[in-house]
Amino acid sequence: MHISEGVMTPEILIVGAVFAIAGTAVGLKKTEHKDIPSMGILTGAFFVASLVHIPLGPFSAHLVLNGLLGLLLGWKAFPSIMTGIILQALLFQFGGLTTIGLNTLNMALPAVACFYLFRRWVRVDSPPRSFMTAAFFCGFFSIFFSAILIGLSLSMAGKEFIPAAKIAVAAHLPIMIIEGAITSACAMFLRKTAPELLTL
Questions:
Q1: Domains and CATH numbers, the chain
Q2: Which of 144, 147, 154, 200 has the fewest CB atoms nearer than 10 Å to its CB?
């Protein structure tokens, strides 16, 4: 789900970087010392999930887990996702250095949006069916919104990228379902084993 180096115009990259830095600053401001271990674990999960990826022209498709990060971290997903993206760019050349800001925005903003959309139902005292459904939708729509943002980014880069933008959204449909299932399963597991993580 990374946009590759050399595709975006400088203007788009600058705007993406500014918003990514702003979101990361908000996330860091909300971070407390006790949050660091869980943020580190979730950043690691985000990093590892991207190791199996399928190149699709100017972008790639792979597991992201941004819905899970958003569900558990809220705004703190921004610094976690940015850290993971920086490591991916430096160690494996996923995306690129100039696209770190835009890729962070495209993955972290949907994570935060889904936190506000679905987190109220993903609580320890929520009915199990509502809990599982909301967690599934959090994972599903985080990828859906990320795919839409990638499609918009590509379409703004030039008309020649519009077909690729459409493919970006369509190609991620199976991943949306998989991410929804993974997010739901992880949330149910945490409900039983570490309910304190669901009290954000």
A1: 10-198 (1.10.1760.20)
A2: 200
